[in-house]
């Protein structure tokens, strides 16, 4: 819709018609587009109008609200399947935790974006393939490929969600960046919902205990699990119908944490040299090191998704350059450590997965850093960095397919 808004910006009647066609989508797309149109009088007028109308919480259409309620109940029901059918929880949850929420969120965006039948068919086949594969995986007590498949299946389902989010504009870098921004907004909103839910839980249990009812076991096995399953769905609904709720919080978090994380990484690398610990001989330390790397990568991507809205924020660009360079150093240490371990003890599923993941992340970081340096030298615009990230996202999707479905076959489900 962004392109339609831009095309009709100087046509008041057509713009009003576009707004009335889908008010929620119009508000969301316009709020993301507005930073590029600040000097436009018409855009300023619409900003004031939409801000005024959105001072309260917009609960969307009745139909949409009913769908969200049903989806939340279904998510809670899926989470309760082990209790309902006496399924082993140790078997069910590691393999199926992603299916509690991701398919429902995917269905929500497929419905909102009115995906074509072929794309819906692709989504259904992909989700069913993952569901069947992971649940028919041999139930081995010690299987590295099973753990890898369970972890990467979450990323696979996340990628399918992104496919539904971008809708019919699969090659649109702006929509892909919007997906990253949505993830950041969702984390903020879901965290707030869970905090509020935690407070409500404490108050409820406390009040009932005062009158002699100990409801802890019942509450956590039924109400709490339903709330946990529903939180991302409700959070998604609120971020999509009320982009203003976290629209100002997410950029602040990005600007605040990017420099802090950069400083922390520098200090951490220096501390490693003095601590005597290293990822070359300590397997657990290497795993934590790689988890840190993935977390920092997520912060970089989210920060760029936010910074890409402003072409004049060069301070933020410098911070991202520092963060990217330091993260490349961290990646280099992790990559050299895994290469060392492979040369000493050979290939295993874990080492191969970490090696492949580190190589992909390093390439992505290098591409992003080059673009950031071009922005600083004024040879490119900041949106070019976003396009680089958006272009590279399908590479991760392909890698999740390989690790989830191919690795178990290559390594004999070991």
From TrEMBL:
TM spans (from-to): 65-87, 93-111, 120-140, 146-166, 186-213, 219-240, 252-274, 286-305, 317-342, 354-377, 389-411
Keywords, alphabetical: Membrane, Transmembrane, Transmembrane helix
Keyword match Repressor: no
Domain of life: Bacteria
UniProt name for this protein: DUF4153 domain-containing protein
């Amino acid at each position: 819709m962004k392109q339609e808004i831009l095309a009709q910006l100087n046509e008041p009647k057509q713009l009003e018609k576009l707004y009335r066609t889908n008010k929620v989508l119009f508000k969301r797309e316009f709020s993301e587009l507005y930073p590029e149109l600040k000097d436009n009088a018409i855009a300023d007028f619409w900003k004031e109008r939409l801000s005024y109308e959105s001072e309260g919480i917009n609960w969307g259409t009745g139909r949409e609200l009913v769908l969200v309620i049903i989806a939340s109940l279904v998510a809670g029901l899926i989470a309760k399947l082990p209790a309902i059918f006496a399924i082993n929880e140790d078997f069910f949850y590691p393999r199926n935790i992603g299916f509690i929420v991701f398919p429902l969120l995917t269905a929500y965006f497929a419905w909102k974006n009115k995906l074509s039948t072929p794309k819906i068919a692709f989504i259904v086949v992909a989700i069913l393939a993952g569901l069947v594969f992971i649940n028919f995986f041999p139930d081995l007590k010690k299987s590295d490929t099973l753990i890898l498949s369970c972890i990467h299946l979450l990323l696979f389902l996340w990628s399918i969600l992104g496919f539904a989010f971008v809708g019919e504009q699969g090659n649109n870098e702006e929509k892909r960046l919007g997906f990253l921004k949505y993830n950041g907004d969702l984390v903020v909103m879901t965290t707030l919902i869970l905090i509020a839910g935690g407070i409500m839980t404490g108050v409820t249990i406390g009040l009932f205990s005062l009158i002699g009812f100990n409801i802890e076991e019942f509450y956590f096995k039924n109400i709490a699990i339903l709330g946990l399953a529903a939180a991302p769905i409700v959070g998604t609904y609120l971020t999509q119908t009320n982009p203003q709720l976290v629209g100002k919080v997410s950029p602040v978090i990005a600007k605040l944490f990017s420099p802090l994380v950069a400083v922390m990484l520098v200090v951490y690398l220096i501390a490693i040299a003095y601590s005597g610990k290293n990822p070359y001989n300590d397997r657990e330390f290497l795993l934590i090191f790689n988890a840190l790397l993935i977390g920092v990568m997520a912060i970089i991507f989210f920060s760029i998704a936010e910074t890409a809205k402003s072409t004049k924020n060069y301070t933020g660009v410098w911070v991202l350059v520092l963060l990217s360079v330091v993260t490349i150093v961290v990646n280099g240490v992790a990559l050299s450590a895994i290469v060392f371990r492979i040369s000493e003890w050979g290939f295993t599923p874990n080492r191969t997965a970490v090696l492949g993941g580190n190589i992909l992340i390093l390439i992505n970081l290098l591409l992003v850093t080059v673009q950031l340096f071009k922005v600083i030298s004024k040879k490119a615009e900041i949106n070019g960095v976003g396009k680089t990230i958006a272009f590279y996202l399908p590479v991760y999707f392909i890698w999740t397919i390989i690790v989830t479905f191919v690795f178990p076959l290559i390594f004999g489900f070991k």
